[in-house]
What we know:
8-stranded mixed beta sheet, alpha/beta, 6-stranded mixed beta sheet, 41% helix
Amino acid sequence: MNYLESLYWIHERYKFGIKPGIKRMEWMLEKLDHPERKINGIHVVGTNGKGSTVSYLKNALMTNNYTVGTFTSPYIETFNERISLNGLPISNDEIVELVSIVKPVSEMLHDETDLGVATEFEIITMMMFVYFGQIHPVDFVIVEAGLGAKNDSTNVFMPIMTVLTSIGLDHTNILGDTYLDIAKEKAGVIKTGVPLVFAVHHDEAKAYINAVVEEKHVKGIKLNRDIQCVSNGKEFTFRYKDYELENIELKMIGAHQQENASLAIATLLEMFDRGMIMLDFNKMIEAIEATTWTGRIETIQESPTIILDGAHNKESIDVLVATMKQHYPDRTIDVLFSAIDGKPIGRMLKSLEEIADTFYVTDFDFPKALPVDTIYESVEHEKKVKIKDYGDFIKTYDGDLLIVTGSLYFISTVKDKLKKHAQ
């Protein structure tokens, strides 16, 4: 198969949906001689903040001369970026090579077992393990979990560190509809002997994670207990053990990014203390300060200001709203919103309506995208408008500040459409 045929075969798996569980992964990995056992992996899980935390870790390790693989989802601009080496997506030829290895094993899974067909995400996860475990070994692989944790297809390797960025109400139809339900799912990645760096704010969820940490005799490194992140507007001070790092100013705005960066720094310092890495602290902080992550409060145009943000659940929308209030208090903000099915759009919209002067809604080409009429009917804002062609709308927007948000998949299609407009 060539590259496009390989992509088609991968994406064709989408029709098999989401099937939580790791038995299919374990069966296929065994057939491939367990590439997942040959990586030094950092497992990053959580409802929100995973992608940014992965990026902080990657850049800090790279600037300290380590080779770093990353596995992230969803992709924003190109499919290949899901498996990246030192921040660069792997090549089309490497995608073809990986499919040629994984496809026969997935067919064996279907033919020889009653476990069912491998899903799209399982196939891509397999490709990542094969790439970094066999084809192109690196010093460290930072693996971002997909949906959940315990039953996520990434939860099949023994990491050297685990990072839990947050617990929020997302994918409730699969993970459960309470913070405790989701905490139980996330806690499935906590492994005996592997330090856990975590940030959990909900009391019941926090108590559960603490109990699992104690039961498994894991070193728990918790934000606001072991890690201190003291914000002073744009700058913050970080404290952990005897370490104190002052006047850290990130490119990515918002208190939540200061917390994500603090989790990354604590992870790196713990690795340093354990002799896993050598660290030039100045290089580490410079890299973290310079980090950006596409689609996260990303300014793509200054005048008028257009910002893309992939907030896709109630918690991340609340963080976006708080950040906009803090950093753009005197601006007239318009919102362009679209989302996929299964999200609590009523609560998401209600939060966004606090900052919106005019509320624009649209839909986009994606299997689970909500129809524009469904979203429009859920908006209570007095100034609401349906947008048919969001590409033309963004290109010709002449207001003060436009936030485009509601789904990372939406942001991905927006970026693709704007790129085509520019050609």
